[in-house]
Amino acid sequence: MTDSTIATPAAASGHAHLSTRILALASMGLMVLDHELRVVVWNQWLASHAGLSASRVLGRPLFEVFPELAGQRLEQLVQSAMQSKLPQRLSPASQRAPFPLYASGTWGGERIEQAVAVTPFTEGKQHYCLIEVADISITVDKEKQLRGQAEALRAQSYVDGLTGIANRRHFDVALDRELRRAQRNSGQLSLLLMDIDSFKAYNDHFGHQQGDACLTAVAEAFAGMLQRPADLAARYGGEEFAAVLPDTSAEQAAQHAEAIRARVASLQLPHAPAATRPYVTLSIGVASFHREHLSDAASLLAAADSCLYQAKRNGRDRVELHSLTPAA
Ligand SMILES: Nc1nc2c(ncn2[C@@H]2O[C@H](COP(=O)(O)OP(=O)(O)OP(=O)(O)O)[C@@H](O)[C@H]2O)c(=O)[nH]1
C-alpha cells in the first residue's frame, strides 16, 4: 500500500485508512475526478498498469494526462455524467481499450481490453466522478475462443464427415435459399440428384470400407466439376449425391449432369461383377425451377427423384431430364 496513491478530502471517518487500503488492494482501476476533471484519486492498479505513479497524475486534468482521450467517447461520457448526474458506461464494443493500460511490466505491448464505468457523485458540496476500469482481456479472449469454436462447429455441422462435401442439412439450407432467390430474380435454378449404380453389389463385393473410399472418390470427382462459387455439391444420403445449380437452365443443367456422369465413368473405378457396368457409374435426374409447376423444394426434389428412377429403369449410367409436358 502506498499513501501516495490517494489524495482524498480530509478523512471523514475513523475508517478512512480502510478506504485507502481497499483502493490499494483493488484488482481494477479506480480513479476519481473533481469537477474540473482533475485526478484526485489514482489507485495502485492504475499506477502499475499505466506505468504512471500517483505523484505524476494527482492534481492534473485527466485529459491532459492522456491527451489522446481528449475529444473521444470517454471524454463525452465523463462530461455527460457530470452534467446529468447519471452513471454512464463505455461499452467495449464502441471502444475496447480507451486508456493506455498494459499488463504489468509490458508497456508498449498490446493494451488491456477495458470495460469502463463512469459514476458521478457529490461529497459535501463538491461534485466528483468515479471512473472504474475493469480488465476484460480474459473475457474477450474467451469470447473470441468460443466464437471460433462455435464457427468451427457450425462449419462441421454443414459438412459430410465421410466425403468432406456439403451434407444434407447444408443442401436443404442452400436449396431453400436459392429457391427464394429464384422466386425473386431470374427464376433459373436447377437440381441434380445422382446415385451410384449398383452400389449394393459394390459393397457386397469389395466390402463396406472400400465402398466408403469409392463414395469419397466419386464425391471428389463430382464436386470438382462444379465451377461456380454458388453451385453446391452435397451428399444427399447413403450413395446419393445432389447439386444445387443457381442461374442454370434445364439445358445447361443437363449438360453439367452429362459432364459429371462422363467424369465419374472416366475414373474407371472397377465395379463388382454383378453390376451393370464394369466401372462405377452414376445415374442422374435433373429438374429445374418453374414458377408455376416446380417452385418449392419438395416438388423439385420429387421431380429430380422420379428422373433418377427413370434413369435407373432405362439402364443406368445416364442422365434423365424432367419435362413439364407429360408423355402422351
Ligand atoms: N460403403 C457405404 N455404403 C453405403 C453408404 N450408404 C449407403 N450405402 C450402401 O449403398 C447401397 C445402396 O443400394 P441400393 O439402394 O439397393 O441401390 P444400388 O445397389 O445402388 O442399386 P441401383 O441404385 O438400383 O443402381 C446399400 O448397399 C447401402 O448399404 C455408406 O456410407 N458407405
UniProtKB/TrEMBL annotation:
This is diguanylate cyclase. GO terms for molecular function: diguanylate cyclase activity. Its EC number is 2.7.7.65. Residues 187-324 form the GGDEF domain. It catalyses: 2 GTP = 3',3'-c-di-GMP + 2 diphosphate. Residues 21-85 form the PAS domain. It comes from the Bacteria. It holds the Pfam family PAS_4.
